[in-house]
Structures are given as structure tokens and as C-alpha cells.
Amino acid sequence: MILNHRFDGPPDAPVVVLGPSLGTTLGLWEPQLPALTAAWRVLRYDLPGHGGSPAASGLTRDLTVDDLAGAVLALLDRHGVQAAAYAGVSLGGAVGTALALRAPDRIASLILCCTSARFGTAESWRERAALVRAEGTKPLAEATRGRWFTPGFPDAERYLDMLRGVDPEGYAACCDALAVFDVRDRLGEIRAPALVIAGADDPATPPSHAEVLAGGIPEAALLVVPGAAHLATAERPDVATAAITKHLTIRWRTA
């Protein structure tokens, strides 16, 4: 599985990988690029069927979050990156958690945004996968608006258009991956210095999910962003970007 990806920033700088949420593309992270590319080589990628990545194919079983972590490791190997920092939103955050567990020597610093160690029930994800396989992603847009953003966020359509453009099979495969993701009993194994960010008004992964992550990962820090729902990095980029750059700067130097 080769994921569409791109680099920005100085070629000789330390690498930070940015993982998107289900239904968005690597464009989710554009608000953070000016700050991050000042000191980091930024690697962004698209999930299967999202943006420029083909839908997952060739698997003889359902896609898993660990498969996605393996695909990110393959990107690092392909470009000769031995160690990187990682920040991810929602499913992208779950990929970061899986990476920190699977390859602890490769992840020097970890930022988990609006994500969880366990995303709801398997049944709810299987139902959503079936709906999208039958009708595509467009029927999800209005319900997603209320999960992703607080009322009145002016830029919502930009991100909802990303969702509308996702390949249905790619989206459904990612739902299958979330259906079986559960690392609640393994959080204590993570050794990367971690920052957990939650949106105060996030109905999808509320602050209680962030508290589980921050409480389970040794010495993890927790930030709850006011006035933000599930895509807090997009809705409150001022607060999120400042926290991300501060954590990366301090934790990379002390790792």
C-alpha cells in the first residue's frame, strides 16, 4: 500500500509526519504549515481512497490501523527517515498510536489530536461502512458538519468538500479499520513524549477520550481547546499550532 504524500520545508531539517482524519486529505494540515516548515521537514499523507491515495486493494481481509501504520513506516523507509515526530488527527492519531507501539525507536515525539484509544462500537462503524459502500460519502456531509465543527465555523465547506470527494471503498475500508481498533490496555507501553489535544465541544472523541489517552500514556500532557469540535486543528489553528510547535521543539531536543 503506497500512500500519496508530499514533503514541505527544509530538506535537512528533522521530520514531522502529519496524519489526517477520516474523510479529510493532507490539506487538513495547511493551517499549520507556515509554522512547522520554519524548522521542520513536514511529511503529509493521504489515507486510502482520500486525496491522491488509491483505495485499499489487494488485501484478503479488512484493513486495520496497524496496516496504515505499516504504510507510514514504508514511507519513512522509502525516504531514508530513521526517526520522526508524528502528529495525527482522529484516525491519523490512531495511526500515530499504532506507530508508537509498533516501532517505538522510530517515533521520537507524538501528538494525538481529537482521537481515541477506542472509537465507539464495531457495529456503528460497520453500519457506516455499509452506508458509504451503498450511497457514497455525500449523505454523510450534514451530519459530519456538526461533529467536525461548532456552529457557525465559516470554513466548514472547504473541509466537507474533502469528505464528498473521498472514494467510497477507501472510506469504508477505514471504517472497517476503526471498528476493530482498541489499544486501551496498551497505552502504558508508549514511550514517546506525548501531547494529547482535545476539542472542548467534540462529540466524536470528547475530552473524556483524551483523558483516557493522557492518563494511560506515561507522562503525557493534555490540552483541551475551547471553542472547537472534532477538527480542532482547523477550527482553532492558533491554539493548536502553538501547542504543537512548542511540544515538538521541547520534546525533540530532550528525546
TrEMBL record:
GO terms for biological process: acylglycerol catabolic process; beta-ketoadipate pathway. Its EC number is 3.1.1.24. The keyword ATP-binding does not apply. Residues 14-127, 175-236 form the AB hydrolase-1 domain. The keyword Lyase does not apply. Keywords: Hydrolase. GO terms for cellular component: membrane. Signal peptide: none annotated. InterPro entries: AB_hydrolase_1 (IPR000073), AB_hydrolase_fold (IPR029058), AB_hydrolase_sf (IPR050266), PcaD/CatD (IPR026968). This is 3-oxoadipate enol-lactonase. It comes from Microbispora hainanensis.
